Amino acid sequence: MAVKLTKNELKLQKDRLRQFERYLPTLMLKKQQLQLVIQQIEREIETHKKEQAALIAQVKMWIAVYAENERYDLLSLVQIDTILKSKSNIAGVIIPTFKELTFKHIEYNPLLYPLWIDKGVSFLREVAQYDALIATLNEQIELLGRELRVTSQRVNLFEKVKIPEAKEHIRLIGIYLGDQQTAAVVRGKIAKKKLVAGA
Q1: How many structural domains is the chain composed of?
Q2: Which residues lie below 8 Å from residue 120, measured CB to CB, with a gap of 6+?
Q3: Considering just the CA atoms, what is the radius of gyration of the chain in Å?
Q4: What is the CATH number of the domain that holds 97?
Q5: Chain segment 66-75, per-residue pLDDT in tens
Q6: Which domain holds residue 141?
Q7: Which of 56, 68, 80, 158 is least buried, going by the fewest C-beta atoms within 10 A?
Q8: 195: in domain
Q9: Could you tell me if residue 198 is inside a domain?
């Protein structure tokens, strides 16, 4: 990009450099914050997956009983009604936060089902809660990851392009204006000598 070699342009370039250098630390801080939050959410997902796996392991025995009685459609008794989420703001990014999972109330005749049916319904609801929570956390990671990519690009733009470019423009303008000032002084001395010699 061609740059004007004037004092006004020098002031403009210095102002831009100050602005870039003031904005860069904020961007870097935002990038670090996003990275930290993403790591925390990833750890939280792992924790919830382990808790869900432990829950499944606890009830494997009666799952075997359920497998013997396939005529009972346990899944039809557990139907999700709504997934309630709120919104949070992390480093300027609006993300969903899991609040609650509600289920449709489905009536069934306890005399037609085995004794463990209530425990089975409760178990499936708890597993569904974990699924909804983990899905919401993955959505958070996706949104924060997008913002992290944009922020990283901006950090690179300022660090590797804008700041060095502004410094180079300032250097070039400074050299040019210095040369012009030196030339003006030399012209002034020559003119003075001619005036003195002519007088």
Answers
A1: 1
A2: 62, 66, 74
A3: 34
A4: 1.10.287.3240
A5: 555 555 666 6
A6: 7-184
A7: 68
A8: no
A9: no
